[in-house]
Amino acid sequence: MPDISEAARRRFQLVLIKPSHYDDDGYVIRWWRAMIPSNSLAAIYGIAAECAERQVLGTDTAIDITVIDETNTRIDFAALLSQFKRNDNFGMIALIGVQSNQYPRALDIARPFRDAGLPVSMGGFHISGCLSMLDGDAIGLDECRKMGVSMFAGEAEGRLEMVLRDAAAGELKPLYNFMNDLPGIGGTPVPFLPKNNIQRTLGLSTSFDAGRGCPYQCSFCTIINVQGRKSRFRSADDVEKLVRMNWAQGIHKFFITDDNFARNKDWEAIFDRLIELREKDGIPLGLMIQVDTLCHKIPNFIEKSKRAGVTRVFIGLENVNPDNLTAAKKNQNKITEYRKMLLAWKAQGIMTLAGYILGFPADTPESIRRDIKIIQEELPLDVIEFFVLTPLPGSEDHQVLWKKGVEMDADLNIYDVEHVCTAHPKMSKQEWESIYQEAWSLYYSPDHMKTLLRRGAATGIKLSSLVKVLVSFATTVPLENVHPLQSGLLRLKHPSERRPGLKREHPLLFWPRFTFDTIRKHLSLAGTIIKLSVSAFLIARKADAKTYMDKALTPVADDDEDVLDLFTKTAGGTAAVSHIKKVAELTHTRKAV
């Protein structure tokens, strides 16, 4: 936190809170150590710290910043209210990066502060998406108005100081709407969090965005309607600055949150700078990035990813059925490129993770089971994250259903891409929910996880890291009934944190059951860890570990379109291959799919 002169007469209390949301039993999802760091929180803290350093509220006013990520920290309402009271209630609570599934919890957090007469502001994808795609009264926004919570739509670079000044003057506006004026982010304060906050994440990792916005048109996506379709970027200097700031406090692992880093026009300059920081300055960078399925076509992109410190890459695969991809306007995904792309990452020993959406119009339980089997046998993919196709407020899918008056679930808490929120043309709600649960056990079967370890040993992936990821993705849904991206280490609950409207459990009943469940889950977790660790140890010791080969690892060949189910089991797959052959015929080339 910036140093402010001790002569300051007033201290403005700025409390930044990233809300969690409620599980199916109504308890806040919170962990001793959470998996995913919040980039929204880091971005706002960086801006707020710079405002404090510039003394935007005047030379006689300091800004004290408190950071709370509810996924790993319990909110002590009484302590915070006392903190404000000691400072004459001079300050503001800011609810940061609120997604649709977090909106009900965010309102519940705001309520006691508003009851105490404190200013509260809320921003994030839910408010920004609703104001961008719907009318100003849609999807619960009136709850903010009734409670007197100020809404912030858009991005805070260059705007936060205005909100702080209004709050300090007691003149916080009901709405700050900058959706039609998205700022440049080059040269602005970089995302940053103090180490004591980062320590509450697994792996001591933090995050930053090197760019915002996406040019594609995926109908299920909210990013294009909140961050815009015109990309904006940080410079290599910005990235070096934030890396050095974090390295000064011992942090060297980063999740680059760009929806598609491969489309960042400055990707090479940024990678070159990161390579220099690793190879010349000795900063042991470990990076995870998100890319599209065509990134392998960019010369040197994957090779420089490896040198820059990328150890994991998340790919928006979404589906292996071209008919489903077309329905979602994700035409940039070509299944004929999937194997080339994944093998290119494998060649660099980088772990591949992919998002896979269940519930596209052509999906049925049978087709989903078939497609998972195809992925297991034919794609060299390490980790799959399954999602339920969800009409998120702020997406085109939601807007279309909303305009048509199609029924969608009224409880925003379940808009977390793991619950069914609307009807499907071929599956009942129960069938859809059941196949989502089944998908995890199908892909992460004991036999297939051993296969993944064999492939990892053959392609140079660090098996201990792969075991950690497989344990999380294989156990979180069956044990905790939450998505692995919402997971962490050691689930924490408190009877006071149950959703309003649900009966508060008596502590004498709550704590024994919670303790028993925790022990039971961790015994099961320990069993999975032991089994996978032993398998990894034995596989690594095999003399032929480096030469293991199966259908997925086999190099792409000209006859793949005739022998692989990826291309022959769906009409869209057959059509995609026919198109490739037609292009080859017209251009007098012969290219393997």
From TrEMBL:
<dbReference type="InterPro" id="IPR007197">
    <property type="entry name" value="rSAM"/>
</dbReference>
<keyword id="KW-0479">Metal-binding</keyword>
<protein>
    <recommendedName>
        <fullName>Radical SAM core domain-containing protein</fullName>
    </recommendedName>
</protein>
<dbReference type="InterPro" id="IPR006638">
    <property type="entry name" value="Elp3/MiaA/NifB-like_rSAM"/>
</dbReference>
<feature type="domain" description="Radical SAM core">
    <location>
        <begin position="196"/>
        <end position="430"/>
    </location>
</feature>
<dbReference type="InterPro" id="IPR058240">
    <property type="entry name" value="rSAM_sf"/>
</dbReference>
<dbReference type="InterPro" id="IPR023404">
    <property type="entry name" value="rSAM_horseshoe"/>
</dbReference>
<keyword id="KW-0411">Iron-sulfur</keyword>
<keyword id="KW-0408">Iron</keyword>
<dbReference type="Pfam" id="PF04055">
    <property type="entry name" value="Radical_SAM"/>
</dbReference>
<keyword id="KW-0949">S-adenosyl-L-methionine</keyword>
<dbReference type="InterPro" id="IPR051198">
    <property type="entry name" value="BchE-like"/>
</dbReference>
